């Protein structure tokens, strides 16, 4: 099928919210991880969202180059081509981008999309994230309002973060403190600044104890019931049931019940990265340990080309990651729900 257009992405999100399920949002940093994501979604019969961070985009351009705009465009070009070979559809998204990174990532990408749309084309990305969790909420929302106008004009959707996700992702660290929990007042202030769709569609990552990475049980306290409280109280104030399209960040390592509760309270997109990184790398480690004398030229021997050929262990890595994508789609309820 391929990559969705603007109208199809809106339909995807509407269908998830109405149907009570969420899409896996999969961070990819190479052709191999992108292919693994597509294969997993295909096996699950699920549409999904492929996304790239600033660090991932740097890597896409080549680790000696680190041109994140070039890398992001390379990701888009590759995804648009290879996604045609699958029976599901995917959206393309830029993940976490903080204030210091805006000028080298989201701003130039939006400008390129504005030029494309002006010439009768589509935006390069279906959605962009502005991560203002490190700045005061008023400043966060002021910048979000500016971006919302621009994303609306190119047929894209904005994602924002209200509150702060703890842990570390791509060198950006969030403290594990009270800011992990978005308040009703924070959410109300968000609506006052951005509206409820009339100024452009946005998704909100409201934090409820989320932390990037995986921690031992008991170290992180998720409170998905907070999402219900915010949806109920803000919805009552503005006369709109479940007013927010919610995103679940830091989803790796969450229990099935925590995921199910978050989806029930309005999550339509869940980011999965750490679990998928491990699922990709674990089969490689297994292959290397099992084929030690094949992947290394030990004691003057020549090794085994079939063992150290990157395609040999690459296929295993992709299969491992794909299986984890299928698991995620089943947990989120998107499996078997691709309409294309």
TrEMBL record:
EC main group: lyase
PROSITE patterns noted in UniProt: ALDOLASE_CLASS_II_2
An example Gene Ontology CC term for this record: cytosol
Residues that bind Zn(2+) 2: 131, 161
GO BP annotations, alphabetical order: glycolytic process
Binding site for Zn(2+) 1: 96, 212, 249
E.C. designation(s): 4.1.2.13
Residues holding dihydroxyacetone phosphate: 213, 250-252, 271-274
GO terms of molecular function: fructose-bisphosphate aldolase activity; zinc ion binding
Cofactors required: Zn(2+)
Bilayer-spanning residue ranges: none
InterPro entries xrefs: Aldolase_TIM, FBA_II, Fruct_bisP_bact
SUPFAM superfamilies registered for this protein in UniProt: Aldolase
Reaction(s) this enzyme catalyzes, per UniProt: beta-D-fructose 1,6-bisphosphate = D-glyceraldehyde 3-phosphate + dihydroxyacetone phosphate
Active site: 95
Keywords from the UniProt entry: Glycolysis, Lyase, Metal-binding, Zinc
The protein's annotated pathway: Carbohydrate degradation; glycolysis; D-glyceraldehyde 3-phosphate and glycerone phosphate from D-glucose: step 4/4
Record's cofactor remark: Binds 2 Zn(2+) ions per subunit. One is catalytic and the other provides a structural contribution.
PANTHER family reported for this sequence: FRUCTOSE-BISPHOSPHATE ALDOLASE (PTHR30559:SF0), FRUCTOSE-BISPHOSPHATE ALDOLASE CLASS 2 (PTHR30559)
Described function: Catalyzes the aldol condensation of dihydroxyacetone phosphate (DHAP or glycerone-phosphate) with glyceraldehyde 3-phosphate (G3P) to form fructose 1,6-bisphosphate (FBP) in gluconeogenesis and the reverse reaction in glycolysis.
Family: Belongs to the class II fructose-bisphosphate aldolase family.
Protein name: Fructose-bisphosphate aldolase
Organism lineage string: Bacteria, Bacillati, Actinomycetota, Actinomycetes, Micrococcales
Gene name for this UniProt entry: fbaA
């Amino acid at each position: 099928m391929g990559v969705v257009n603007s109208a199809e992405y809106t339909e995807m999100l509407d269908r998830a919210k109405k149907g009570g399920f969420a899409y896996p949002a999969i961070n990819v940093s190479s052709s191999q991880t992108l292919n693994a994501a597509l294969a997993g979604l295909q096996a699950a019969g699920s549409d999904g969202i492929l996304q790239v961070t600033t660090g991932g985009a740097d890597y896409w351009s080549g680790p000696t180059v680190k041109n994140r705009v070039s890398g992001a465009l390379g990701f888009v070009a590759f995804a648009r081509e290879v996604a045609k070979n699958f029976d599901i559809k995917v959206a393309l998204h830029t993940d976490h981008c903080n204030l210091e990174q805006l000028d080298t990532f989201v701003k130039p990408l939006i400008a390129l999309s504005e030029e494309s749309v002006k010439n009768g084309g589509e935006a390069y990305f279906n959605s962009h994230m502005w991560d203002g969790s490190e700045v005061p909420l008023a400043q966060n929302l002021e910048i979000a309002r500016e971006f919302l106008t621009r994303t609306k004009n190119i047929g894209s959707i904005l994602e924002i973060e209200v509150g702060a996700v703890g842990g570390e992702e791509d060198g950006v660290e969030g403290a594990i403190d009270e800011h992990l929990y978005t308040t009703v007042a924070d959410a109300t202030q968000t609506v006052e600044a951005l509206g409820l769709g009339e100024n452009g569609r946005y998704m909100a990552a409201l934090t409820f104890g989320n932390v990037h990475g995986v921690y031992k049980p008991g170290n992180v306290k998720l409170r998905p019931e907070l999402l219900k409280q915010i949806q109920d109280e803000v919805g009552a104030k503005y006369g709109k049931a479940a007013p927010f399209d919610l995103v679940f960040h830091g989803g790796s390592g969450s229990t099935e019940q925590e995921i199910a509760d978050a989806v029930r309270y309005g999550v339509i997109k869940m980011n999965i990265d750490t679990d998928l990184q491990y699922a990709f790398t674990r089969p490689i480690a297994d292959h290397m340990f099992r084929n030690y004398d094949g992947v290394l030229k030990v004691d003057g021997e020549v090794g085994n080309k079939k063992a150290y050929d990157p395609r040999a262990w690459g296929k295993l890595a992709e299969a491992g990651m794909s299986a984890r994508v299928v698991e995620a789609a089943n947990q989120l309820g998107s499996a078997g729900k691709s309409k294309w």
